[in-house]
Amino acid sequence: MSALRATDTVMPTAEDTVHHNPMRPPADSPRTVSEAVWVFLRHPSPLILLVTLLALGVMRWQAGDLAWQDAAIALGIWAYFPFNEWLIHKFILHYRPRQILGRTVDFYLPKTHRRHHSDPWNLTWVFVPRHVHALVLGLLSLVYLVAGSWRPELLTFAFVYLLFGLHYEWVHYLTHITWCPPLAYYERRVLEHRWHHFRNENYWWGVSFGAGDRVLGTAPDAKDIARSGTNRDLGLKR
User: Fold this and answer.
1) Where are the beta strands (DSSP E) in 96-196?
2) The pTM is what?
3) Is the dihedral of CA 153, 159, 162, 163 positive or negative?
4) Cβ distance 101 to 230 under 8 Å?
5) DSSP state, 29?
6) What are phi and psi of 159, to 5 degrees?
7) b/e for 191-229, b at 16 or more Cβ within 10 A?
């Protein structure tokens, strides 16, 4: 595909951009904070999380005073979440189809994630699918109904976990647009996730946190890692 000339009026597509400079977002990507927030809130996943967090916050406030258990739950989730997203990314999203008894066993989430890798600037594949939210919220609701005296702590758990989930969605989204907050933390997260997409998909599994990669040894210096050549198809024939 040939490069567009300066005199061309057609904006470069995501495919053009990836072909000429893989780590540079397309020209129509959000470039300001207002554009970034507006596009973010147009997608169902962030809205589902925001509405759910508001409801959980009200329910937890009505349940009574916060106690040390709530702080312990929040700290526990904070410590675990980097490994949570590392495990999900590596073993669920990058699941490879298997042949079992002559049948191909594959799942919707890894299928959509492979689409995300093949078209990384397409925001359709960036966010958590709605059916995953339905499954998680349904499970939390079921546990809440049988939790008894543990209901306030469960509300705290659900609120904090989904708050980190919203942060995950925000950081992942930032990786796939032009604008990024001028903070070293976010700049680092964006850079490492782009290395995962455009250098070698076998490293940098963390998205909103990098601690999982550092503890588990999957955050090398990018200069030490060769380009895999399979970032777009994950080594699978499409």
Assistant:
1) 98-100, 103-105
2) 0.88
3) negative
4) no
5) S
6) -65, -50
7) ebbbbbbbbbbbbbbbbbbbebbeeeebbeeeeeeeeee
pLDDT, tens digit (0-9, with 9 covering 90-100), for 200-217: 999 999 999 999 999 999
Token readout for 221 is 């210096």
Neighbours of 80 (CB within 10 A): 14
pLDDT tens by residue, 172-203: 999 999 999 999 999 999 999 999 999 999 99
Nearest to 206 by CA among 187, 111, 214: 214
Tokens of 74: 């929040």
Of 94, 75, 109, 90, the residue nearest 217 (C-alpha): 90
Distances from the Cα of 112 to the Cαs of 47, 187, 233, in angstroms?
Answer: 20, 26, 12
- For residue 177, count CB atoms less than 10 angstroms from its CB and return exposed for 0-12, middle for 13-18, buried for 19 or more: buried
Rounded distance between C-alpha atoms, residue 130 and residue 182, angstroms: 30
- Letter for the amino acid at 123? L
Tokens at 189, concatenated: 């997260």
- Region of residue 229 (left: phi > 0; alpha: psi -120 to 50; beta: else): left
Determine the 3-state secondary structure of 80 from DSSP: helix
Measured between alpha carbons, how far is 197 from 122 in angstroms, rounded to an integer? 13
- Residue in the structure block whose two tokens are 């040390």: 68
Domain borders along the chain are 34-224
